[in-house]
Design a protein that fits this description.
Elements: E1 2-6, E2 12-15, E3 19-22, E4 41-43, H1 54-57, E5 63-65, E6 71-73, E7 76-84, E8 95-103, E9 106-110, H2 120-125, E10 131-135, H3 144-154, E11 158-162, H4 177-181, E12 187-191, E13 193-196, E14 206-210
Parallel strand pairs: 3-4, 4-5, 9-10, 10-11, 11-14, 12-14
Antiparallel strand pairs: 1-2, 1-13, 2-3, 6-7, 7-8, 8-9
């Protein structure tokens, strides 16, 4: 059984015997609660303060991953794909790493702070994905409209929106409403966390919206 828990913004906890944390923030710097989790593996998509607060969730022996090199840690496969934080090849906000992770036979893709459409080669590399974490708040990343264009290309079984305005968040980004309104797929509100096994991944695509 695999646990998925949202800690706000782009920070997710994915855990079985090993706990992975994506793009950790410290909470107080962006106006939301501090993530209360200790990570075995931390994935950092880019070096901005609201995504790289490894000290908040690290412990002795934590593996911190900040590059796209393919690697296996225990039974977990991790591979990164280069991308950008903006539409001008990183000139404004720098580079971004898309992480593909396979744990308990469930494939995840976390797009980080993706700021542009994806080319065909990257889309092909991200096919056959169970769960996609995608930013939808605009301003610093793709917005709801662009997010749906990318979802329709990748065709994940489950889409989880992230990086959008919630209560307390001090960043000027859009709430999740527009993304939900544009959804051609069933939208499930799953609370703060969910337990999932490979056999429970829906065969027909769904959107899961987490709350903090």
């Amino acid at each position: 059984m695999l646990l998925i828990r949202w800690h706000g913004h782009s920070c997710f906890e994915i855990a079985d015997d090993i706990t992975i944390v994506t793009d950790p923030h410290d909470g107080k710097s962006i106006g939301i609660p501090t993530p209360l989790v200790s990570a075995d593996i931390i994935l950092v998509s880019h070096n901005h303060y609201d995504h790289n607060s490894v000290k908040t969730v690290e412990k002795e022996g934590t593996k911190i991953i900040t590059d796209g090199r393919k690697r296996t840690i225990g039974q977990i496969l991790i591979k990164g794909f280069p991308s950008y934080h903006d539409e001008s090849m990183g000139e404004r906000r720098g580079e971004n790493i898309i992480y593909k992770t396979i744990i308990d036979d469930i494939s995840f893709v976390h797009l980080g702070d993706l700021g542009h459409d994806l080319d065909d080669k990257t889309i092909e590399s991200l096919e056959d994905i169970d769960i996609l974490f995608i930013p939808v708040g605009g301003t610093y990343t793709i917005d709801a409209k662009k997010a749906w264009e990318i979802i329709n290309k990748i065709k994940p079984r489950v889409t989880i929106p992230m990086h959008y305005k919630i209560e307390g968040l001090s960043l000027p980004i859009a709430p999740v409403d527009e993304f939900i309104e544009q959804s051609p797929l069933p939208v499930l509100r799953v609370g703060n966390e969910i337990d999932i096994e490979k056999t429970e991944i829906p065969s027909d695509p769904e959107v899961w919206v987490f709350t903090l």
